[in-house]
Design goal:
Layout: H1 5-15, E1 17-20, H2 26-46, E2 53-55, H3 64-72, H4 75-85, E3 89-99, H5 121-124, E4 143-149, E5 160-162, E6 186-188, E7 195-198, E8 204-205, E9 215-224, H6 236-248, H7 251-256, H8 263-281
Antiparallel strand pairs: 1-7, 2-3, 3-9, 4-7, 4-9, 5-6, 5-8
This protein binds 2-oxoglutaric acid (AKG).
2-oxoglutaric acid is lined by residues 111, 116, 160, 204, 206.
Length: 285
């Protein structure tokens, strides 16, 4: 049974991530795998020492854009993104990353602990004031990663590791320990087609792939509108989506690609309403 957005949100606030099981259909999953397998094999052969290869800017890709457009525009994902970030959701990047098979002696090794872009925990980790930092109340993320895995995740294919609660507590892993298991880590149980939706303050890592197959996932990285985005939006598929969105006055879709002329004004109107509410609640002296 599918969980409600509120149940996902409760889990997300507590742990810094939530799981959407069976997010991608098996037929789409198979189509994506067969569309990218040869490309990854070619890239791994060309650069055997690189730990990963990425097919970036998917909406600009001549064939994958059409195949993956419904995945990016999935209203369930966008509803949840709006639930956690507010109506400010813009795409940063949409890509497929693949990890080649590595020798068996690297079995179950941590790839690298990190937080994703725009986090403040890493920014302040080595500042003298960080000694006084206490866990803070939940705050909305500035960015979220929607990671959809394209194979069952096993110890061989390399589990996703997370430190639940690290979006709130400033946990820090020194550079020399980023390839070591963490005392509070959880290895997330995932099947092909499951999606993990993260908070940008969550500490997480992949694990090395020692299976005989490519390990890969699709990442849709979304962020607050107005932040710099890696993907290009001036490409035919995005232009066609936006043209159709304009006809329906679908502001949410337009915002996903950075267009919303009135958003700052509407946000300020919401602030004005809150400020007026606070003033109305003041006790007279
Ligand atoms: O490899 C994984 O499972 C996680 C990937 C990841 O953390 C990232 O690309 O930011």
């Amino acid at each position: 049974m599918q969980r409600t957005l509120e149940e996902h949100f409760a889990e997300y606030k507590r742990n810094g991530f939530t799981l959407f099981r069976n997010y991608m259909s098996h037929s789409l999953l198979e189509d994506v795998r067969s569309a990218v397998d040869a490309e990854f094999a070619r890239r791994f052969a060309e650069h055997p020492d690189r730990p990963r290869a990425t097919i970036a800017d998917l909406m600009a890709h001549p064939t994958l854009a059409h195949l993956l457009k419904p995945h990016l525009l999935n209203s369930h994902m966008l509803d949840f993104a709006e639930r956690v970030m507010g109506p400010f959701v813009q795409l940063d990047s949409f890509e497929i990353t693949g990890f080649p098979s590595r020798p068996a002696d690297q079995f179950n090794r941590v790839a690298e602990w990190h937080r994703d872009a725009f986090n403040y925990s890493d920014m302040w980790a080595n500042h003298p004031s960080s000694a006084h930092f206490k866990p803070h109340p939940y705050t909305a993320p500035t960015a979220c990663n929607c990671l959809t895995y394209l194979q069952d995740m096993t110890a061989e294919s390399g589990a996703l590791r997370v430190v639940p609660g690290s979006h709130l507590d400033f946990s820090h892993i020194p550079a020399q320990e980023r390839d070591q298991p963490h005392a509070r880590e959880v290895l997330v149980e995932l099947s092909a087609g499951d999606m993990v939706f993260t908070h940008n303050e969550l500490l997480h890592a992949g694990s090395i792939n020692t299976s005989e197959q490519t390990r890969y996932f699709i990442s849709a990285y979304v962020q607050r509108i107005g932040l710099p985005h890696r993907d290009r939006f001036d490409v035919p598929v995005v232009e066609a989506i936006c043209q159709e969105a304009r006809q329906r006055n679908d502001r949410r879709t337009l915002r996903l690609f950075g267009f919303d002329a009135n958003f700052a004004e509407r946000e300020q109107a919401a602030w004005r309403a809150m400020i007026a509410e606070d003033r109305a609640e003041l006790h007279p002296q």
